[in-house]
């Protein structure tokens, strides 16, 4: 499919506006449903001494579900469906994912080996991959940034940051 964008560029294919709206509506419906479900588990009624713990989250989740269903209905049954409009071209999506996927691995890395080692790897990876820097320089700079951050938080400010499930810093007593 070919679509003219406002900048004068021709976009050949990508994810349609309709598909993006459906995916977002379904995700928000699921999240709203999860909030409603957990609010019912906590208690969502108004009792003699005031609202139970899930009272306000229940209604917020309910409103999210209703809005998601309305959006889904409009997209599926509305007159202007956006079938031929491109929401994001494949090349643009690849650029976004080239940052988003490594960021997701960074978050996972923080959980496993802590923020210092994960940050060193993340910085080095981006310098080599996107910045096209020498890998030795990248690794050294990633390690240097993590060491400075470690010294600043752990030693000077006495504020421990998360060291991960496997805590690689346990070998030096932290």
Condensed summary:
The protein has 174 residues and is mainly alpha-helical. The protein contains four helices and six strands. The chain folds into two domains: 3-84; 90-172, no CATH class.
Textual characterization of the structure:
With about 170 residues, this protein is mostly helical. It has two domains: about 5-85; about 90-170, no CATH class. Helix content is about 65%, strand content about 10%. The chain has four helices and six strands; from the N terminus they run E-E-E-H-E-E-H-E-H-H. It has a two-stranded antiparallel sheet. A two-stranded antiparallel ribbon has the order 3-6. The mean pLDDT is about 90.
What's the layout of helices and strands?
Layout: E1 3-4, E2 10-11, E3 14-16, H1 17-42, E4 46-47, E5 50-51, H2 55-77, E6 86-89, H3 90-129, H4 135-156
Antiparallel strand pairs: 1-2, 3-6, 4-5
């Amino acid at each position: 499919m070919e679509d003219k964008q406002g900048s004068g560029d021709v976009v050949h294919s990508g994810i349609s506006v309709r598909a993006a709206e459906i995916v977002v509506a379904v995700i928000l419906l699921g999240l709203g449903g999860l909030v409603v479900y957990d609010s019912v588990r906590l208690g969502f009624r108004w009792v003699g001494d005031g609202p139970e713990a899930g009272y306000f989250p229940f209604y917020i989740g309910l409103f999210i579900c209703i809005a998601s269903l309305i959006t889904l209905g409009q997209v599926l049954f509305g007159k202007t469906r956006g079938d031929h409009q491109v929401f994001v071209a494949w090349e643009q999506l690849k650029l976004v994912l080239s940052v988003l996927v490594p960021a997701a691995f960074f978050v996972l890395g923080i959980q496993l080996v802590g923020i210092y080692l994960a940050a060193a790897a993340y910085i080095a990876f981006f310098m080599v991959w996107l910045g096209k820097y020498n890998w030795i320089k990248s690794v050294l700079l990633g390690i240097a940034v993590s060491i400075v951050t470690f010294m600043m938080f752990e030693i000077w400010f006495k504020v421990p940051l998360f060291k991960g499930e496997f805590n690689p810093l346990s070998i030096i007593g932290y």
